[in-house]
Amino acid sequence: MRRLVAFGVLAVALAACGSPQQAADQSSLAVEPSSESAPAPPSSAPVTSAQVTATAAPASGRCTAAVLAAAVESTGAGAGNRYGKLVVTNNGAGPCTVNGYSGLQLLDSAGNPVPTDLRRTSDPGPAPVVLAPGTAAAANLHWTVVPTGDEPVDRPCQEEAVRAAAIPPDETEPMSLRWGLGPVCAGGKIEISAFYAA
């Protein structure tokens, strides 16, 4: 018997990190019984088409800190600016989805917070990224090494972070990663984009 199935796409919402939620789509599909699989109705009975509602296919769950490995990579420098990427890789056994912005807190060697002022940028903005096992997503980072305000100019403007804690979208448990990209001036201001397929 021939079947037509409509799959819905589920976009995973970002609540912990403040991204707009997106709803799952469901669609309906009219299917007529095949003459090969069902006898013809009696001549006195009207012939009607069967209405079949296709349920949304189970989507991958959110990527959590338990299945993600995180790292930061330097991607460029110039005129006091620094650029990098926060890269997360799915180390789980099945697919998972990231959608939106990561949280990020710089830390010293003892795990204490180093000034961090995370600012979201809209290029690219939030969109669901499904990560198969072993695949990665990235978020762009930008910061300055030029002292601002009352920051010192004869030594590092801020304490240099040793590690960082990054929280996946819609989650509360952080991933731990090595920073190693130098001090972040302007009070620890870091611009971050939403995740996109790496």
Automatic annotation (TrEMBL):
Q: Where is the signal peptide?
A: 1-23
Entry annotated with the keyword rRNA-binding: no
Say if the entry is tagged with keyword Signal. Answer: yes
InterPro entries assigned: DUF4232
- One Pfam family matching this protein: DUF4232
**What PROSITE patterns does the database record attribute to this sequence?**
PROKAR_LIPOPROTEIN
- Annotated segments matching region Disordered: 26-48
Keywords on record:
Signal
* Compositionally biased intervals (Low complexity): 27-38
Q: Which residues form the DUF4232 domain?
A: 63-195
The entry's protein name is Uncharacterized protein DUF4232
Task: Please give the organism.
Answer: Saccharothrix saharensis
